[in-house]
Amino acid sequence: xxxxxxxxxxxxxxxxxxxxxxxxxxxxxxxxxxxxxxxxxxxxxxxxxxxxxxxxxxxxxxxxxxxxxxxxxxxxxxxxxxxxxxxxxxxxxxxxxxxxxxxxxxxxxxxxxxxxxxxxxxxxxxxxxxxxxxxxxxxxxxxxxxxxxxxxxxxxxxxxxxxxxxxxxxxxxxxxxxxxxxxxxxxxxxxxxxxxxxxxxxxxxxxxxxxxxxxxxxxxxxxxxxxxxxxxxxxxxxxxxxxxxxxxxxxxxxxxxxxxxxxxxxxxxxxxxxxxxxxxxxxxxxxxxxxxxxxxxxxxxxxxxxxxxxxxxxxxxxxxxxxxxxxxxxxxxxxxxxxxxxxxxxxxxxxxxxxxxxxxxxxxxxxxxxxxxxxxxxxxxxxxxxxxxxxxxxxxxxxxxxxxxxxxxxxxxxxxxxxxxxxxxxxxxxxxxxxxxxxxxxxxxxxxxxxxxxxxxxxxxxxxxxxxxxxxxxxxxxxxxxxxxxxxxxxxxxxxxxxxxxxxxxxxxxxxxxxxxxxxxxxxxxxxxxxxxxxxxxxxxxxxxxxxxxxxxxxxxxxxxxxxxxxxxxxxxxxxxxxxxxxx
Length: 584
Fold this sequence. Notes:
- This protein is an alpha+beta fold and 584 residues long.
- The termini are far apart.
- It has helices spanning 3-7, 13-25, 32-38, 44-53, 71-77, 83-98, 105-111, 117-126, 175-178, 186-189, 236-248, 279-286, 291-310, 366-369, 376-392, 404-411, 417-420, 426-435, 446-462, 480-495, 528-542, 546-559, 564-583; strands at 129-134, 140-144, 161-162, 182-185, 195-196, 199-207, 211-217, 225-230, 257-263, 266-272, 313-314, 323-327, 333-337, 344-345.
- A 6-stranded antiparallel β-sheet has the order 5-6-7-8-10-9, covered by helices on one side. Strands 3-1-2-4 form a 4-stranded mixed β-sheet. Strands 11-14 form a two-stranded antiparallel ribbon.
- Keywords: ATP-binding, Kinase, Nucleotide-binding, Serine/threonine-protein kinase, TPR repeat, Transferase.
C-alpha cells in the first residue's frame, strides 16, 4: 500500500496534498509520515495507530493466517481473568517500564493473583512456550518453540532442565527482580555443551533477533571467548556485514572480532569476551551511573567512534546494550563498542531510501529519521541519549509505544540532565545538550566531543581550572571580545549605582560577538573558584569520600561566604551529616 493511501484516513486532503508537494520537491526520497510529523499533522499516538494498521511488507491482504494472540487476550478468552484485570496489569507494566523495570504481563497477573501459575503455564503452551527450571542454579527459562521430545540443558551451568516448577509467587517487587525468568528460543538453548574446535559452548550470554551470543571456553586457551552464531531464520547480509565491519576495525574500545565459521549451516564468528556485561544491565542494576565512571565510559566510547568515523564507518545503533564493560589489569573500567550489524560506510546511498530505517527508535537522530543521510553525527546523538540514561537513570521521553520516539526525536527537545539529577555539574549538561542537538550542524563530531570530555575530566578528576577554548565547536568556547566587554562593564557598574549609564566600548579584536553561542558559553563569575571547589566536592561524594567532601564544602563556606556556592555547600554538609546519623 502506498504511503499516501495509508495517511489519507488520518489527515485532511489539503494536508496530504501539502505533504506530497514537499516530498515531490525535496532532494531525497523522504517518507510522507516523517513530513507529516514535521508539519504537525500527526502526533506520536496517531503514528502508532498508523503503523499498527499497516500490514508487514510482503504480507498479502488475503492472508488467512490469523495474528498470534497476546497472553492477556488468551486470559480473557479462557475466562482466567477479566478484561479490566488485564487492562490494570497492562497499566502497571507501562508504569514499571517508565521506571526502567521490564516485566511480562503474565508475571504481573500472577503477582496480582488474577491468574494461577498453572493457568499461565497452560497459556504459554498454547503459544508454543514452556517454562523450565534448572535444579542446579535455580534459573527459570521460558522456552519459545518448545519441543516435547527434546531434552534441554541449562545454558548457564549445563545441567538438565526440568519442567516441574512449584506454583510460587513471582512477585514484581522482589522475586522477579532477583530471579527473573529468562526468555529463550529452543534454537538457542539447544547449543549448550556443543563443541567448535577446541572451544565448548558453556553459557548463553545474550539472545537477539539476528543471533545468539555464548561464552565459550577451551582447556588450551587462558581466556574464554564469545561466540556469535546466526539464527537459522535470520538474514545473512547483516551478519556478514557485522563481521566485515568489526573485523576491519582494530581499536582498544571496539570489541575485537576473530575467525569465522559454520555450525549446523549457521554462520558464526568468535569475539573478544568481556566479563562486565552490557551498559544497559549496569544502568538497570545501579539506577544512576556515578559521575566519573559515566564520564570514563562516555570518553572511551567516543574514542572508539572517532576511530570508526575516521575509517568511514557509522555504527547506526549506539545504545547501552551495544556497549560492553570489563576491567583492565589494574582493575580500571574499560568500555567497548559491539554489534556493527547495521553499520554502513558514510557514502553508502542505500541507507537513505524510504523504509530503510534500521536501528533502535529511541536512539535515532532526527536527520536520520527524516531520511537526510547518515554520518558520524548520528552516532553522537545516539551516544547523547545513552549519556542521558547513564546520568539520570531515566528515559529522555515518555512514549506509549517505541514508534513514538520517531515523533519526539524530531519534535521535542531532550530535557537538560541537571533537571533530573541536580548534583551533576553544569558543564556536563552543556556537553550532553550539544550531543543531542536537533540540527546536526550544532552537534559535535567525535573529535570535538572527545576534546571537551578531556577538559571536563581533567577539571573534575584533578581539580584543575576548567580550561576555556578558542575552538567555536566547544561548549567552553571563550569569545575574547565578549569577556572584555563584560569585565569593563563590571568595573563601571561597581562605581555607579542607581543611574542609567550608556557605555560604548571600542573593541580591539576584529572578531564579532557570537551571540548565538552565549547560551552554551560557561560564564566567568567572581566566585568561579568557589564553584570549582563545589564541583570537586561533588566528585568526592560520587567516589564515596564524604570526609573529604565535607572539608571542601567547609572551605567554601569559610573562604567564599557570600558566593552563590556557599549556600549549596551548607546544604551538602547538612545532608552528609544527616546521612551519617541514619547509618550510625
